[in-house]
């Protein structure tokens, strides 16, 4: 089947098998490696991307379901000049990663969370990220990173998710 979609601001048109998962389309067809394959069962969140601005686990979405829609991966949050998004920068500054495997999914879930709730409490951050697992960090620095990103965004003109090209 032919699909047409926008990925990280670039319009794409590709032939895909109807059963191809979005995560495999992103990784194998487009060469975008941030969305990781961790479980294929929607349990870990390592493959989280934004689909029309909403976080989804791309291991349970077919590529054909993204037809006519906009997909943003962690690579798409980086500005053309290489500047990281506020969320990515906050993860870096607050050591919100250890091995890094879950980090792109966490960043995407956090970006979506902050777009919906620009001023979350610690509990709201924990609840907003509950579908994303980290086996290394214990979550403290991840939560701290999201709260720092919220503070950074509230003090700037940048709106959460505004770095995402729709």
From TrEMBL:
GO molecular-function terms, A-Z: 2 iron, 2 sulfur cluster binding; metal ion binding; oxidoreductase activity
A Pfam family recorded for this sequence: Fer2
Name of this protein: (2Fe-2S)-binding protein
Protein's organism: Trebonia kvetii
All copies of domain 2Fe-2S ferredoxin-type, residue ranges: 1-77
Gene3D superfamilies according to UniProt: 3.10.20.30, [2Fe-2S]-binding domain (1.10.150.120)
UniProt keyword terms in alphabetical order: 2Fe-2S, Iron, Iron-sulfur, Metal-binding, Oxidoreductase
Top-rank lineage group of the source organism: Bacteria
Pathway annotation from the record: Alkaloid degradation; nicotine degradation
């Amino acid at each position: 089947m032919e699909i047409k979609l926008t990925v990280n601001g670039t319009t794409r048109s590709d032939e895909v098998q109807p059963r191809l998962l979005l995560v495999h389309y992103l990784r194998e067809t487009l060469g975008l490696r941030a969305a990781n394959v961790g479980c294929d069962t929607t349990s870990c969140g390592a493959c989280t991307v934004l689909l029309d601005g909403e976080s989804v686990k791309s291991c349970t979405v077919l590529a054909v379901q993204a037809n006519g829609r906009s997909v943003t991966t962690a690579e798409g949050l980086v500005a053309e000049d290489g500047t990281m998004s506020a969320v990515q920068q906050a993860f870096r500054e607050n050591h919100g990663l250890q091995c890094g495997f879950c980090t792109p999914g966490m960043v995407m879930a956090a970006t979506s969370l902050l777009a919906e709730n620009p001023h979350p409490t610690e509990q709201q951050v924990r609840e907003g990220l509950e579908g994303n697992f980290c086996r290394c960090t214990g979550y403290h620095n991840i939560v701290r990173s999201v709260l720092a990103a919220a503070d950074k965004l509230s003090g700037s003109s940048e709106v959460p998710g505004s770095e995402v090209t729709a």
